[in-house]
Design brief:
The protein is of the alpha/beta class. The chain has a single domain, classed as 3-Layer(aba) Sandwich (Rossmann fold), CATH 3.40.50. Helix content is about 40%, strand content about 20%. Strands 3-2-1-4-5-6-7-8-9 form a 9-stranded mixed beta sheet, with helices on both faces. The relative contact order is 0.13. It binds 1,4-dihydronicotinamide adenine dinucleotide (NAI) and ligand LZSIJSXV. The site of the ligand CCCCCC(=O)/C=C/C=C\C/C=C\C/C=C\CCCC(=O)O has 16 residues, from helix 7. GO terms for molecular function: 15-hydroxyicosatetraenoate dehydrogenase activity; 15-hydroxyprostaglandin dehydrogenase (NAD+) activity. This is 15-hydroxyprostaglandin dehydrogenase [NAD(+)]. Keywords: Oxidoreductase. It is an enzyme of class 1 (oxidoreductase).
Length: about 260
């Protein structure tokens, strides 16, 4: 899909990756409504982006996406501003190993709610225009990570949910594409986290693997949006290897029930 002239709803756009994605989309001619729980930063970002791209192409709406009503209201605001939403990016996320309920509510719960809101609005078999749903997971959704088991679980949930919907027998009728983004560590406020187990593991990990810029990862999101035939995509983004699609197969090893998930590139 070409972002030019398309309408976008994005969560967690006040800073970090969310803001980076909003900026790329605006530079490609899309209109964006983003929400965030950080109202002050959201307003400041809106004002800066309106100055650069125009007052009628980017809007901020305050919302905590762990709250059902606020999340629905924010999505509804995008629909009423643009009439239609073509691209939905469920990006808002936190990392806090002391509060697993909150992590699951935002990283998994809000991704599920946001996806279902977008599907209902976009699906062509119920009068919508089709579209793309991009769910932001992490490399942690593909691996195990003793430093942050709850965060890791929330990101595995995003990948399982998104790829399962992508495999829906009704997908062609819905005309909605489902994609997961799985970045490695990138330079945002999340990386300043202190609330993980074994913080020394993080230091070691970053020494070995480096840290990506937001812009590199936001470019990968444009690839997800633009590639037409990637329903069910899991796009891994790392500093050393760049953006690569994981090819996921479910292999039936014994013809009965010994199913194994195998990823290749
Ligand atoms: N920074 C990293 O190394 C990586 C981050 N990610 C994922 O990227 C996504 C974006 O994270 P970053 O930009 O790094 O973090 P960030 O902390 O810089 O930005 C996250 C934004 O989400 C907002 N947010 C948090 N909770 C919210 C809620 N309940 N409702 C609405 N907005 C909320 C925050 O206010 C903030 O503006 C997250 O899903 C994160 O898990 C994935 C891989 C690596
Ligand atoms: C595997 C780390 C990349 C996960 C990227 C992400 O989604 C958010 C990162 C934010 C902060 C980092 C927090 C925890 C990671 C800590 C240690 C990683 C050790 C993993 C390992 O050695 O295998």
């Amino acid at each position: 899909m070409d972002p030019q002239g398309k309408s976008v709803f994005l969560t967690g756009g006040a800073q970090g990756l969310g803001r980076g994605i909003v900026e790329k989309l605006l530079s490609l001619g899309a209109k964006v409504l983003f929400c965030d729980v950080d109202v002050e930063r959201g307003k400041a970002t809106e004002s800066e982006l309106q100055t650069q791209y125009g007052a009628d192409v980017v809007f901020f709406h305050p919302a905590d996406v762990s709250d059902d009503e606020q999340h629905k209201a924010a999505f509804g605001m995008a629909v009423s501003k643009f009439e239609t939403v073509d691209i939905c990016v469920n990006n808002a996320g936190i990392l806090n190993e002391s509060n697993w309920e909150k992590v699951m509510a935002i990283n998994a719960g809000a991704v599920i709610r946001g996806s279902l809101l977008a599907l209902e609005h976009m699906r062509r078999d119920r009068g919508g225009r089709g579209g793309v749903i991009i769910n932001v997971a992490s490399i942690a959704g593909l691996n195990v990570n003793p430093a942050c088991p709850t965060y890791c679980a929330s990101k595995h949930a995003v990948i399982g949910f998104t790829t399962s919907w992508a495999m829906s027998p009704g997908q062609k009728d819905h005309a909605v594409r489902w994609c997961c983004l799985c970045p490695d560590a990138m330079e945002t406020s999340m990386l300043k986290v202190t609330d993980i187990h074994y913080p020394e593991m993080l230091e070691e990990y970053l020494k070995d693997n480096g840290v990506m810029s937001v812009s590199q990862v936001a470019d990968a999101v444009m690839k997800l949006i633009q590639d037409p035939d990637n329903n069910g995509a899991i796009l891994e983004v790392t500093l050393k290897k760049g953006a690569r699609y994981r090819r996921r197969q479910v292999v039936d090893r014994d013809g009965v029930n010994d199913l194994v998930i195998m990823d290749t590139y």
